[in-house]
Specification:
This is Formylglycine-generating enzyme family protein. Keywords: Signal. It holds the Pfam family FGE-sulfatase. The structure is a single chain. The protein is α+β, with helices and mostly antiparallel strands and about 350 residues long. The chain has one domain: Alpha-Beta Complex (paralog of FGE (formylglycine-generating enzyme)). It has four helices and 13 strands. The strands form five sheets. The protein has a four-stranded mixed β-sheet with strand order 11-10-9-12. Strand 7 and strand 8 form a beta hairpin. It starts with a helix and ends with a strand. The relative contact order is 0.23. About 10% of the residues have low confidence.
Length: about 350
């Protein structure tokens, strides 16, 4: 997904073109991991993802940035079995007193031209339209909500109390990276993420679990069913985020690699990277470029979210890619961590 902050702050009613800011992360973008921190007792269990070769990407014409399909080899690694939860992120904040980007007041330098009265801490929140909406105008269902952050995902009237096992959302790339470093982990590369999602299945399958969207009438992921964006039938049992492990894991024991919340990867985003990607342990391109928003620094996002549907966003499908500006967050965006095998 593209960044949402700038035009929502401007109140333009359009899908946000993003800020002109640059990342505040380190210039060293290799997915290295620091010495392990003392983790909370409830820290996410990790699954060993065996190394090997697989076919990465998609030939679906709906995903031009995911072609060509190419053979990739990755070494074995560890991956969180599910997305980082509210409880786990809360332990990180309690230990470090970290303040997420969404909790910080935007600056005039970061968002030139935005009226001063609108420069308030907050983030992007999905808001169901009350009437039929044109799919060409995502500004009809995205709003910048003052006070929206990881503790209050939908704004000040919402809370994560009682939702310890929901994936943490409203975290930008910088926030996810800070958590990973504290936990003695790192963010997965895009190749590692797809390797784990495929779990040895054929690249020709439409979905990571197979050819059928709901085999035997059973939903395999938390996505949007019905008339997007206003008519969610809740056929899979959820309207918004689902607690982790609400759907069956894949054969590796990894949960929610499709739908629920988008997940940050370490790689910079470029739509042409697969044309030159190395065959062994690709780390992603050396810089970011998105021709739709060339002034923004973007990283890859994977897996889709509870807002993906067969009518609008279908990027929960196998091999598809997402993207996001590094300091933008939303209530359908989270992450999980990886780690080298020692």
């Amino acid at each position: 997904m593209a960044s949402l902050t700038y035009w929502l702050l401007m109140g333009a009613g359009l899908l946000v073109l993003g800020s002109s800011c640059t990342s505040t992360t380190s210039d060293d973008d290799t997915p290295s991991q620091p010495p392990a921190a003392k983790l909370p007792a409830a820290a996410t269990s990790m699954v060993v993802v065996p190394g090997g070769r697989f076919s990465m990407g998609s030939n679906d014409p709906a995903f031009p940035d995911a072609s060509p399909v190419h053979e990739v080899r990755v070494k074995s690694f560890l991956l969180d079995e599910h997305e980082v939860t509210n409880a786990e992120f809360a332990a990180f904040v309690a230990s470090t007193h970290y303040v997420t980007v969404a909790e910080q007041k935007p600056s005039a330098e970061e968002f030139p031209g935005v009226p001063a009265a609108q420069l308030v801490a907050g983030s992007a929140v999905f808001s169901k339209p009350e009437q039929p909406a044109s799919l060409a105008d995502p500004g009809q269902w995205w709003r910048y909500v003052a006070g929206a952050n990881w503790r209050h995902p939908l704004g000040p009237g919402s809370s994560i109390v009682g939702h310890d096992n929901d994936p943490v959302v409203q975290v930008c790339y910088d926030d996810a990276l800070a958590y990973a470093r504290w936990a003695g982990k790192r963010l997965p590369t895009e190749a590692e993420w797809e390797c784990a999602a495929r779990a040895g299945k054929s690249t020709t399958a439409a979905y990571y679990w197979g050819e059928d969207l709901a085999p035997g009438g059973h939903w395999k992921a938390n996505i949007f069913q019905g008339d997007f964006p206003a008519g969610n039938t809740r056929a899979d049992g959820f309207v918004g985020v689902a607690p982790v492990k609400s759907f069956p894991p894949n054969s590796l024991g990894v949960y929610d690699m499709e739908g629920n919340v988008w997940e940050w990867c370490n790689d910079y985003y470029r739509p042409d990277y697969y044309q030159t990607s190395p065959a062994a342990n690709p780390p992603g391109p050396p810089d970011s470029y998105d021709p739709e928003e060339p002034g923004l620094v973007k990283r890859v996002q994977r897996g889709g979210s509870f807002l993906c549907s067969d009518q609008y966003c279908i990027r929960y499908k196998a091999g598809s890619r997402g993207k996001g500006e590094v300091r933008s967050a939303s209530n359908n965006l989270g992450f999980r961590c990886a780690k080298d095998v020692e």
